[in-house]
Amino acid sequence: MPASSPFLLAPKGPQGDPGGPVREPALSVALWLSWGAALGALACAMALLVQQTELQSLRREVSRLQRGGGPSQKADEYPWQRPWEQQSPEALEAWQNGERPRRRRAVPTQKQKKKRSVLHLVPINITSKEDSDVTEVMWQPALQRGRGLEAQGYVVRVWDSGFYLLYSQVLFHDVTFTMGQVVSREGQGRQETLFRCVCSMPSDPDRAYNSCYSAGVFHLHQGDTLSVTIPRARAKFSLSPHGTFLGFVKL
């Protein structure tokens, strides 16, 4: 009997399937693809579910707003609300009408409500002093608010300390070559000049008009007295309220 060859004894695979041992890699690839498709479908379904839940919440809120006629008062409950939905009904109505909502003004405190002292004086008389070669002006209030200042004849007394805007004007009608005014303060044991003004005058009596105006900010103290003097005896100037005046405004 002839010797058997190992090749003759080896089992033969089925006919028509010469690549039988190559099936396993292809089957693994197919399984991975099917698992990937299943996971993708599951992710899409979860995203759709989340979107559906948010859409239902939005619909419920819109329906509640339509029934209630205004935005929710609990902004923390719905953090997705738009800024205009968290405003007051008046602001929401203004936004819907295309208008810019107006901000409410802050209510002033009692300190802010305190009125500032204002005093505007006009001349009523003058006094000429030959010995000191000056002319003094007597004043009366034309406008007054507050009690920080008081007109007392030829002087103005300060009752409320603070910073004041002080202004003064004299309209001269004099042929003397130079005229001017001096605003001085007396208080705390001393007298000082706050400001002075000098102007040239025409020699022609028909044209001898010129105004002298000065202004400044000063720290006035309680008890101070202020006055306006013309360093010339028998000075001629206008007593009209629009030509000669003196004023204080507390800052």
Calculate the terminal CA-CA distance, rounded to whole Å: 136 Å
Low-confidence stretches: 1-20, 72-80
Question: What is the helix tally?
Answer: 4
Overall 3D form: rod-shaped
Strand content: 25-35%
Q: What is the succession of H and E elements?
A: HHHHEEEEEEEEEE
Going by helix content, strand content and strand pairing, the class is: alpha+beta
- The percentage helix is 10-25%
Gyration radius (Cα, Å) is: 49 Å
- What would the average pLDDT be, to the nearest integer? 80
Describe this structure in words.
Helix content is 25%, strand content 35%. The protein has helices at 6-9, 23-68, 89-96, 110-113, and strands at residues 118-129, 134-145, 149-152, 155-158, 162-172, 178-187, 190-200, 210-220, 225-230, 245-250. A hairpin with a 2-residue loop joins strand 3 and strand 4 (155-158). The longest helix has 46 residues, at 23-68. It is rod-shaped and about 130 Å long. It starts with 5 loop residues before the first helix and ends with a strand.
List the helices and strands and how they pair.
Layout: H1 6-9, H2 23-68, H3 89-96, H4 110-113, E1 118-129, E2 134-145, E3 149-152, E4 155-158, E5 162-172, E6 178-187, E7 190-200, E8 210-220, E9 225-230, E10 245-250
Antiparallel strand pairs: 1-2, 1-10, 2-9, 3-4, 4-9, 5-8, 5-10, 6-7, 6-9
